[in-house]
Amino acid sequence: MSLLPLTYIEPVFRPPSEASSLILQVTNGCSWNKCTFCEMYTEPQKKFRAKREEDIEQDIISASRVPGVRRVFLADGDAMVLPFRRLMNILTMIKRHLPEVQRVSAYCLPRNLRKKTLSEMKALADMGLKILYVGAESGDNVVLQKVNKGETFDSSREALELCGDAGIKRSVMILNGLGGQLYSERHAVNSALLANATKPEFLSTLVVSFPLGEQRFRASFPEYQPLRQDQLFQEMLTLLTSLDLHSTVFRSDHASNYLVLKGVLGRDKSAMISQVQRAIESPKEVGLRQEWQRGL
C-alpha cells in the first residue's frame, strides 16, 4: 500500500492489528491533542484539520487500482470527530470504489461520540464500520485528570456502551504505569472496573513511555514517579486479578511491554496471572524484552 500515490501528512499512526490495512487519512492530527502523555501529533504540520471529501475520494480511487483491498483504517487520531453525514459519505465512497472491503476501522475518542445517536452508529456499522480503537488509558478519574485526558470513567463507559449497542467491536487500550507510584493500584482497579462494565471485545495494555522526555507530562502531574519494572508487573497483576471478563481477547504484546501476554479472558486468566507472578519472582527466567528491544 505504501507505493500508492495517496496524500499523507506525516507522521501517520495505526494500531498494530491494522498492519495490512489501507491507511486512509481523513483527518490530520487530533482534535483534542492535550493528553500530556501523547506525543503522536505534536509536530507543527500535525495541527488538526479535516480533509476535503474530494481529496479523500481521490485517494480511494487511487487505492482501487490495486486489487484485494479488504480492510481500511481511517486515520488520524480521531476520524470519529467528523459529523455523521461526512462519515457516511466516506463509507459510501469506500463501498463504491472498493467493493471488496470487508471492514473499516478507526481510532475513537469517547468525546467524539457524544453527539452521535444509537441509530447513527448503527447506520455506520451497516455501512462497514466494524471496529473502533478507544484509548481509554485509565478508568480512574484522578489519573485521567492528572494527564489531561478530558474524559472520565463515565464518559468512556457511555461511549463504549454506545459502540457495543450499535454492533461495533471495541478495542480498548490501558496504559500500564500511567498513574505512577502514587496512583498505581487505583489506576489498575478502576481500569478493570471500566472493562468489566463495558465488556469490550479486545483489551490491550501498553507501558507509558516518553521518548521526547517527561517535561510536558510532569507539568500537570508533578508528583509522578515512574514504576520500576517489578512495579509495572505488580500493577498488571492487580489489573488481571480485578478483571471479570469471559470472552475478551487480551493482548499485552506491544513493543513497549517488557512481558508479552496473550490470551482470552477469562479462559486464560489464570495462566496469564501465573506468567506475571513468575516475572515478578524470577524475571531472568521468563524471557523479558530488553530495553533495546522496546519501543513506542
Describe the structure.
The chain is an alpha/beta fold. The protein is 35% helix and 18% strand. The chain contains nine helices and ten strands. The protein has helices at 53-63, 84-97, 118-126, 141-146, 153-165, 180-198, 215-219, 229-242, 269-281, and strands spanning 22-25, 27-28, 49-50, 71-75, 103-108, 129-137, 169-176, 202-207, 248-252, 261-265. The strands form two sheets. An eight-stranded mixed sheet has the order 1-4-5-6-7-8-9-10. Strand 4 (71-75), helix 2 (84-97) and strand 5 form a beta-alpha-beta unit. Helix 2 packs parallel to helix 3 and helix 5 (153-165) packs parallel to helix 6 (180-198). The longest helix has 19 residues, at 180-198. It is globular, with a radius of gyration of 19 Å. The model has no long low-confidence stretch (mean pLDDT 94).
